[in-house]
Amino acid sequence: MEIVRSQRKISAGDVAVISTFPLYRTPPVLEVRLDDFELFAIDRLRVLKGISDGLSRGKKPDEIERLVNDLWKSHIRHPQASESETINKDIISHFVLRLVYCRTEELRKWFLSMETTLFRYRFKLEGFESQRAILAEFNLPYKAVSNAEYKSVEEKLTQVARSLGQSVTRSDDIFYKVPFEEVPELVAGRKVYVHKGHAYVAMNQVVSLVVTQFRSNLSKALILTNRKWTSMISDKEKNRLTPIVEALSTSYLGPDYSEAKGFGEISLKDLDRVANSSFPLCMRHLFDKLKEDHHLKHGGRMQLGLFLKGVGLPLDDALTFWKSEFSKKVGPDKFDKEYAYGIRHNYGKEGKRVDYTPYSCQKIITSAPGVGDHHGCPYRHFSEDNLRAALNKMGVSSRAMSDVMDKVRNKHFQLACTLTFEAIHGSSCDAGINHPNQYFSDSQKILQSKVLLNNPSA
């Protein structure tokens, strides 16, 4: 795949489209604009992260199927796009993210799991003939059970179907006989009849066969891609593609929250109140530590300072707030000389005058706080005892605490924060928490609606 800076768009005639359901065996021979290279990848990333959130929240298979269908329609198969454009976007976005997620074992594991899940449910949404065509494309060495053999096991197959609440098998149903170890999930779920080391797999169950093959192929491909990336591509493209590829795996896909959204400015006199009611744990911890120690290291100042900017604290109030705390330890003169510039810089009033944006959850989670630092994500960086104490201080009940800690142990840190939000506010957060300023904004909306409900004249 060659990436060019040309503004020319690829027409449908520039590529021979063979299948509407690509198996991603070879990279496409296409010229792709650099902008599309990144935008296509971000759209697919929205799909994969949506699936990841759904799985983390324990959605049932039928709910995941609907979720995959909705995500695919929203981000890949736009109504105004032609079929060939959709297929090209599908293929290009997959191979771009393959570059992004081939680079470490942890990234490969996540991408492999999400792409396999996406493939599984897309396959299930395909029609019968399309499924058979995909099965043939994989060239799986399985033959359909003959009529004579079918008759010999028909009673057993019927018993399996009944146990699953399915219609009784018919003589014209297609079954494949495969080694039982190749369909472990079907065997574990007692969804197939096993005889002499072989499982009899119905046509509507072949998704398990195809997914196993797809996962195996993609796993090997990711290893090979990593070798090519490290030995050839990353250095050659260090000034062009490499920065994009390295940034995509930690990309935040929502609003930047550089300005307060959905509410007005927060004044200095309201800061203690809203910190207690609406700050997420990461920011509440920094806020409390600042009040306690009258100082934060650079990482903490950046994380909390940009957050406060995003919730609507004006520059003058921000300077007053930081000075009032730091002066108790370093004195007002040292604050003016060494720290005030950084605060004005965050607000775009110094240096290059860049409008800096608050940190997303992903950026905070992947940070690496050192000794004496207080920034980062408490769900990732706190010990279990310290996290329990912090959650208890926020008012999280013991029952909700158990659910939160379970997500932390499984490294679902954003979902742990989401469950904390839901426990404290008594309200669901289906979109999940992806940004500290989103947590604050959603919290304020809920609290304000409760005030209006209890006092309609307010």
UniProtKB/TrEMBL annotation:
InterPro entries associated with the record: DNA_primase_C (IPR058560), DNA_primase_lsu_euk (IPR016558), DNA_primase_lsu_euk/arc (IPR007238)
Pfam family, one: DNA_primase_lrg
Entry's transmembrane regions: none
Biological-process GO terms, alphabetical: DNA replication initiation; DNA replication, synthesis of primer
Entry's Gene Ontology cellular component terms: alpha DNA polymerase:primase complex
CDD domains: PriL_PriS_Eukaryotic
Signal peptide residues on this chain, from the entry's feature table: none
Keywords tagged on the record: 4Fe-4S, DNA replication, DNA-binding, Iron, Iron-sulfur, Metal-binding, Primosome
Coiled coil: none
UniProt domain DNA primase large subunit C-terminal: residue ranges: 273-440
Cofactor note text: Binds 1 [4Fe-4S] cluster.
GO molecular function, one term: DNA binding
Record: residues binding [4Fe-4S] cluster: C282, C361, C377, C417
Cofactor dependency: [4Fe-4S] cluster
Protein family membership: Belongs to the eukaryotic-type primase large subunit family.
Function summary: DNA primase is the polymerase that synthesizes small RNA primers for the Okazaki fragments made during discontinuous DNA replication.
PANTHER family: DNA PRIMASE LARGE SUBUNIT
Protein name: DNA primase large subunit
Organism from which the protein derives: Spinacia oleracea
Highest classification ranks of the organism: Eukaryota, Viridiplantae, Streptophyta, Embryophyta, Tracheophyta
